[in-house]
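Possible regression after last week's pipeline update?

I re-ran a chain I had predicted before the update to compare outputs. Posting the input and the new output here so someone can diff against the archived version. Not blocking, just want to make sure nothing changed silently.
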Amino acid sequence: MTNPPHHEPGTPRDLVGIGIGPSNLSLAALAHPLAELDAVFYEQHPRFDWHPGLLIEGATIQVPFLADLVTLADPTSPWSFPNYLRTQERLFPFYFAERFHIQRAEYDAYCRWVSQHLPGLRFHHRVDAVRWNPRRDAFEIDHTHLDTHTHGRTHTRNIVLGIGTTPHVPDTLRPLAEAPGVPVIHAADYLDHRATLLTAGHITVVGSGQSGAEVLLDLLRHRPTGHERLHWIGRTEAFAPMEYSKLGLEHFTPDYTRYFHALAEPVRDRLTTAQWQLHKGIDANTLAAIHDELYRRTLDGGWPDTVLTPGVHVRTAGRIATGQIELHLEHLQQGARSRLTTDAVVLATGYRERPLDHILTGLDPYMRRDNSERPRIGEDYRLVLDPAVTGSLYVQNAELHTHGVGAPDLGLTAWRSATILNSLTGKEQYPLPTRTAFTTFGLQEPTPRMPHARQAGQLVPLLE
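New output (post-update):
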């Protein structure tokens, strides 16, 4: 392994990463062998943790194990998942297990292994402010070491912001979720509260995506037959499977990302909403497991005390005199309304991109925004800034509006990190494929794939 370059005090670093989730951990792993790159990464949490509240036993990630931190950009990297298995003397057991999709807890353990052995990572460091210092011709980052409560300042020529997402709580349920002692929790904290939840008389799960399905299945497996007392509701018109056909998955390729980025802003916004089933549907195996569990409970006659209702919106919610929670529901297709009394609520209502404004306030005068006041982001994940800023600021998992459904997808993590490093260094540190999909997504491609003479079947754009 390559040793990181020695940092000379007083000189700007080449790169500072803010946040150490899978995205920036991937970037750090791929930056590690680049001996000329002086990089450091800051994270406010004391160690790497990937959705700890949802590491439910048996739950798998929804991408193949090759979608680790590095392999799809550099299969020879020592930070690959297969090499992690080798170091743990688990390569042969994995080989015989024949698992293409690994358990979520195993992915978390793999990433933690990387974070514990990779140099240049500074955990328990909170970044407080980011500014551009024209005199130093560098970014200025103020941070606090949360163990010692000491403050520091780092200068850098480039920044990669990978602060991840935050659990989303609908406004109608926020007062209950924030009230102390009220059993309304987000699925992100599910495992921390599972023991208490299981003592509740009736439990409602709100949210019809993968997290909602996994929480319902886990609760169902831990409730006695005939006394399940579970209710699962969600806004989507069906508990729909995620699009997982081979050609459908090509929406998570660099080819589609480039196509999406080149579209007009209004078209991108329409597509982001319409393509929910590409990344917010439910794994078909999870749906099958729920059905199997419900069916098993009918073998002795009767039906399980479990209600599954899609197409339902929670209008309002509140506590009633008994201490229970009352949800005011509306069925979006019927237009009908009703009330549901429950003892506990799990909000499987997903995550939202963490707003960049609070950390980038000092750069606001330099930022260029789109018609909806969102940051403009180039194809190489670099924020469009005023030309007076000669450094580069990149973002990871904050570009859904410019790069499409692949923005949060683990399968594009290594490719995105390699793209950023190639752009940042001005060199092809990681050669990337020019073609990654059989599908041609548009009639006019941003980069022609056949630079030579036109061949039969090649589309020629019409001149207007």
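Follow-up from reviewer: compared with the archived run. The chain has 13 helices and 18 strands. Marking as no regression found.
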